[in-house]
Design brief:
With 611 residues, this protein is an alpha/beta fold. Helix content is 36%, strand content 22%. It has 20 helices and 27 strands. The strands form five sheets. An eight-stranded antiparallel beta sheet has the order 3-2-4-1-10-9-11-15, covered by helices on one side. α7 packs antiparallel against α15 and α17 packs parallel to α20. The longest helix has 20 residues. The radius of gyration is 25 Å and the shape is globular. Bound molecules: 6-O-phosphono-alpha-D-glucopyranose. The site of 6-O-phosphono-alpha-D-glucopyranose (G6P) has 16 residues, from α9.
């Protein structure tokens, strides 16, 4: 959470910082700020609210200079107001800091500093860092690198930091422990960012900074130091996101654009990975040998949010096709539990961003215990992608809308390919493998056809957008989807929604049914169709409006449900990938009709990098 952009070069920093902030705004949007440096002077501008508010302020009071740092905030300590906005200045005005992460011992440090007479402006943990660096700087007579190093030794917690000082006005310093940081290398200009997407169109050469590293940047030079001030080797990587991929194009919102990208992103997830000759899938980066995979007696899938729902579908897929027992754990629980896990357990982290703090911690804990780890991840070079033993990239391109859409369908597709791959190592016949490949290859086209339901979904949204509660019900492969549909609606339209296994409804949720609470039934086209239809009848009998999501040709649903959304027929195990599309569109239109900010829903952030 929180976005950081820093620049040092020969161009005006302000427009570069603002462009980067706009790209990172999805990481947090409680406030935004910049500080630039000219001579011995810091020019600080910050505002509560969106980057747009900051731009208005800069229109009145520009921030001059070719070196600066900036921040878009997701509040942790202290409310979202001007004072708590980053950057934070030291009391003497010589040091400015932007920070992503949480300083756990800030209260103790703050009390000590206050006892020494330091006055604080904000409620944030970050201000402590600025004050400490300034004190060290005064003692060291202006050595900013040393002052930052000494300060870091006092901090407990996590940080991605950028620091500038009037004492060394040509120097930009970054530091990382637990929160992402990327260094961008340009021609006589260098960048720092919490997320490579801030650097789109600015540079294609990046260094993903590791924990316990300091970045030292000037216009003409850059290097990394460890905390003993020894230079460390950096791995420069190519970063080739196309600027067009991160724009809204003709769509009104990123979320809608990303929903519509799904036929293509599904294609990208499968490209080069399905192999008819072996009747299996191939993955380049698993880094686990065949014996290790064959020996696997258990798989743990761990994730947060929408990725957790993809993991739940993965459980059904891997158990059915590879016959390996799977457990799915919220990463936030898994990291603190101490479940008995044997040597032949593989832990797979599923994450769009590759930076979710709990998922990263679960990965590290699994590695500490010696388990082979894999990541199914979208963002190339992210912390989880780098730290896992191996993994699979989704190749879905940047996902900017806070509510995840295309990453979900690519995650489930990847899990289906993994189930095929593991299944073929065990008992799946070549014919079964070939059937799965054929069905997987039909996914992009099925997704394209599923998007035809858009108008019907929009009409349904217009009818129900002002309800206060909503139920999502499905069975088997569509049960995790009921959870995902409810999450989408909650996240962006702020309507209370619950997802349940359809039959479980009788054990509680049915009490919520009334004429103002629609129930969305996800009709499995498998053996449980009739059972789900009976559940639908039970809701109807109690006066609850019913929306059925079913496949083309199902005439029964039309006679019983109030509204029907038709989808192309898909094999049962791939239905979650197709049936999620109307649920994404429904949440989208309901949110638009309620006047909500679809791409930046309140209180949420795209990438949750704090615990
Ligand atoms: C946040 C986002 C969700 C996302 C979840 C997990 O809550 O708002 O859209 O599903 O984090 O993120 P990850 O990047 O690990 O998939």
């Amino acid at each position: 959470m929180c976005g950081i952009v820093g620049y040092v070069g020969h161009k005006e920093a302000e427009p570069i910082l603002i462009e980067g902030l706009h790209r990172l705004e999805y990481r947090g949007y409680d406030s935004a700020g910049v500080v630039t440096v000219t001579g011995q002077k810091l020019h600080i501008r910050k505002r509560a609210g969106r980057v747009g508010e900051l731009v208005r302020l800069l229109g009145e009071r520009p921030a001059p200079g070719c070196l600066g740092i900036s921040h878009t905030r997701w509040a942790t300590h202290g409310p979202a107001n001007d004072v708590n906005a980053h950057p934070h200045l030291s009391q003497d005005g010589t040091v400015a800091v932007v920070h992503n992460g949480v300083i756990e011992n800030y209260a103790v440090l703050k009390r000590q500093l206050q006892a020494e007479g330091i006055r604080f402006q904000s409620d944030t943990d970050t201000e402590v860092i600025a004050q400490l660096i300034a004190l060290q700087l005064a003692e060291l007579k202006g050595d900013l690198i040393e002052a930052v190093q000494r300060t870091l030794a006092l901090l407990k917690g996590t940080y991605g930091l950028a620091v500038v000082s009037a004492a060394q006005p040509d120097l930009l310093i970054g530091a990382r422990l637990g929160s992402p940081l990327v260094l961008g290398i340009g021609d006589e200009e260098h960048f720092l960012a919490s997320d490579p997407s801030a650097l789109i169109g600015k540079t294609q050469q990046v260094v993903y900074v590791q924990d316990h590293r300091l970045c030292v940047l000037t216009a003409d030079d850059w290097h990394l130091l460890d905390y003993d001030r020894t230079r460390v080797q950096a791995c420069v990587q190519q970063f080739d996101w196309d600027p067009g991929e991160a724009d809204k194009s003709t769509f009104e919102h990123y979320m809608l654009k990303e929903i519509y990208e799904q036929p293509e992103t599904l294609e990208n997830a499968m490209r080069g990975r399905l192999c008819e000759a072996d009747a299996s899938a191939h993955f380049g980066g698993l880094n686990l040998d065949t014996q290790q995979l064959r020996r696997a007696e258990r798989i743990i899938l761990t994730a947060c949010g929408t990725s957790y729902h993809a993991a739940l579908v993965g459980e059904y897929l891997i158990e059915e096709y590879a016959r390996i027992p799977v457990e799915v754990e919220y990463a936030s629980e898994f990291r603190y539990r101490n479940p008995p896990i044997d040597r032949n357990t593989i832990v797979i982290c599923i994450t769009q961003s590759g930076e979710t703090a709990d998922t990263l911690a679960a990965l590290r804990e699994s590695k500490r215990k010696g388990h082979p780890t894999l990541a199914i991840c979208n963002v190339v070079g992210s912390s989880i992608a780098r730290e896992a033993d191996g993994g699979v990239y989704l190749h879905a391109g940047p996902e900017i809308g806070v509510a995840s859409t295309k990453a979900f369908t690519s995650q489930v597709t990847t899990l289906a390919m993994l189930a095929l791959y593991l299944g073929r190592m065990r008992h799946l016949s070549a014919q079964q493998g070939l059937n799965m490949i054929r069905e997987l290859r039909s996914l992009p086209d099925l997704a394209r056809r599923a998007l035809h339901c858009h108008d019907a979904v929009k009409r349904i949204a217009e009818k129900y957008y002002d309800v206060s509660n909503c139920l999502y019900l499905g069975r088997q492969y569509l049960y995790p989807l009921a959870l995902e549909g409810a999450l989408k609606l909650k996240e962006i339209s702020y309507i209370h929604a619950e997802g349940y296994p359809a039959a479980e409804m009788k054990h509680g949720p049915i009490a919520l049914v009334d004429p103002h609470t629609p129930s969305i039934f996800l009709m499995s086209r498998g053996p449980v169709f009739d059972k789900v239809m009976s559940n639908l009848e039970e809701v109807k009998a109690r006066g609850g409006p019913v929306i059925a999501v079913t496949c083309e040709g199902d005439e029964e649903a039309a006679t019983r449900a109030d509204e029907v959304i038709y989808l192309p027929e898909a094999p049962e195990y791939l239905q979650p990938i197709i049936a999620v599309i109307p649920l994404q569109l429904l949440a989208y239109h309901v949110a638009v009709l309620r006047g909500c900010d679809v791409d930046k829903p309140r209180n949420l952030a795209k990438s949750v990098t704090v615990e």
